[in-house]
Design brief:
alpha+beta; 9-stranded mixed beta sheet; 11 helices; about 30% helix; globular
């Protein structure tokens, strides 16, 4: 039998989609990423993120450019600072902090060889024995259907026109050639929905899973390290720095600077300041209405916040924050605002394993757990242990050395169980952490109860599987 590579489409070209795409390409699959935004629109507005265990494991296994660091490893402490600016307590937690753009360009270099100032591609030898990769901007998925053994994905292009893609469970034979799609009706073997917390595909498949605002927002921004006083830089040398006050909290940490620079003075101080705004309140409406009068439901972009809203927040910063925190907030001239939301799907696998929800499309965590990027990396790592072994036995895979050993492989049921368990526990943990710092003790204790109950359920399930396996 002639070997035939499998064909996959990933809806969403941010970090989640790229994590999955790199794995599938390494497995020898032909991968087509459809990104709704245009090439000048896809950017995470300077956001800092945590490179946790799953992210580190992913890059250790799949990164071609491992000689080039991608994260800041500061003094391995999480420190809490009081109103006077003194350190009140510390936790020894060696966290690695990075930024959205640093990971995006690193993943693009691995996926489709995109040249950028973030990654020195030229000094590495070209990849061999991998699938084809195509990254396409301006592709808005409008519908996903399952009928008679076929998943149909319809999308429109921002440049006009549209296409219909069929994830045929009987497996067609169209492939990518030189990064281009050979046919407008391309049979596929796998569709991954990686279209973020507002996932249209999740809402199509699981009605009632829209994002729900939870009562507070995050003011966010970055400042170049060299623009901050020496005293403030010395205070914020640790990996994360917290100030918590009644009804809110703020954290500051170092992330890579322009083009991923890790040089002292070129790095960025990233702040995230959580403030309460009641749902449907006049204050929230004013905050999320931009300089042109447009209302933004979830994210207010940089440069769009009305001057009077920024001025009020700066006055509040001087009133409530320690001097060092207020200095960083004031030094950032273009903050942006994100409404904190919850959203989750009850299942991750659809159509017999031919459509998967991944990353934030499956479960949108509150930022406090620092786990959204780790979830995306975890899904990719588990994907490498699951796909394509569960697709078919009659269609061989054009594999590479990245394929998991037989003992490490997962069934599609085991894959779904693992991703749903991680999503549930981490989501409840992030809710508890947020409620502790933003709301009353009773709201916090209620979220702790649900978190504890979830851990009991998971432990009981694991014990039952162990016991039945012994009988």
């Amino acid at each position: 039998m002639v070997e035939k590579s499998l064909d996959a489409v990933i809806v969403g070209g941010s970090l989640t989609g790229l994590f999955q795409g790199v794995v599938l390409k390494k497995l020898g699959c032909n991968v087509r990423i459809l990104e709704r935004a245009g090439p000048d629109d896809l950017r995470e507005q300077g956001a800092g993120i945590t490179a946790g265990e799953e992210v580190q494991e992913f890059f250790n296994k799949y990164d071609r450019f491992s000689d080039q660091p991608y994260s800041v490893l500061g003094d391995p402490k999480l420190q809490f600072i009081d109103q006077s600016g003194q350190v009140s307590k510390t936790w020894n937690i060696p966290l690695r902090m990075t930024s959205w753009d640093t990971l995006y360009y690193r993943l693009r270099a691995n996926f489709d060889g995109l040249q950028s100032d973030y990654v020195a591609i030229d000094r590495h030898t070209p990849e061999t024995a991998t699938g084809a990769a195509s990254y396409e901007f301006g592709c808005n998925v409008t519908d996903v259907k399952y009928n008679m053994g076929t998943v149909e994905v319809n999308f429109e292009r921002s440049t006009g026109g549209g296409e219909t893609l069929h994830a045929d469970l009987f497996f067609g034979n169209q492939q990518l050639h030189g990064g281009e799609v050979a046919d407008k009706n391309t049979p596929l073997d796998l569709v991954i929905a990686a279209d973020g917390p507002a996932s249209g595909i999740r809402r199509m498949l699981c009605p009632g899973t829209e994002r729900k605002y939870v009562g507070y927002v995050a003011w966010r921004g970055t400042v170049v390290e060299s623009q901050i006083s020496d005293e403030t830089k010395a205070l914020f040398r640790t990996c994360i720095n917290y100030f918590i006050y009644p009804g809110g909290h703020i954290l500051i940490y170092l992330i890579p600077g322009k083009n991923g620079s890790l040089k002292s003075g070129e790095r960025l101080l990233n702040y995230v300041w959580y403030c309460n705004y009641a749902a449907n309140s006049h204050e929230l409406r004013n905050l999320m209405t931009d300089t042109e009068g447009h209302y933004h439901r979830v994210t207010m972009p940089m440069g769009k916040i009305r001057p009077e809203a920024c001025a009020r927040q700066m006055v509040y910063a001087d009133k409530i924050l320690p001097t060092a925190f207020a200095e960083v907030v004031r030094s950032n001239k273009q903050p942006f605002v994100q409404c904190i939301t919850d959203a989750a799907a009850p299942q991750a696998v659809f159509f017999g394993g031919h459509l998967l929800l991944a990353g934030d499309a499956l479960c949108n965590f509150r930022p406090h757990a620092g786990a959204s990027t780790n979830q995306a990396a975890l899904h990719a790592l588990l994907l490498g242990r699951t796909f394509p072994f569960n697709i078919t036995q009659s269609k061989p895979l054009n594999t590479t050395s990245q394929v998991s050993s037989k003992s490490d492989r997962l069934t599609i049921q085991a894959y779904e169980s693992k991703v749903l368990r991680y999503a549930k526990l981490t989501s409840l943990m992030s809710v508890a952490w947020g409620n502790k710092n933003q709301f009353s003790i009773w709201i916090f204790l209620g979220s702790v109860f649900w978190l504890a109950l979830a851990y009991v359920e998971v432990s009981a399930e694991a014990f039952w599987k162990w016991l039945t396996g012994r009988l």
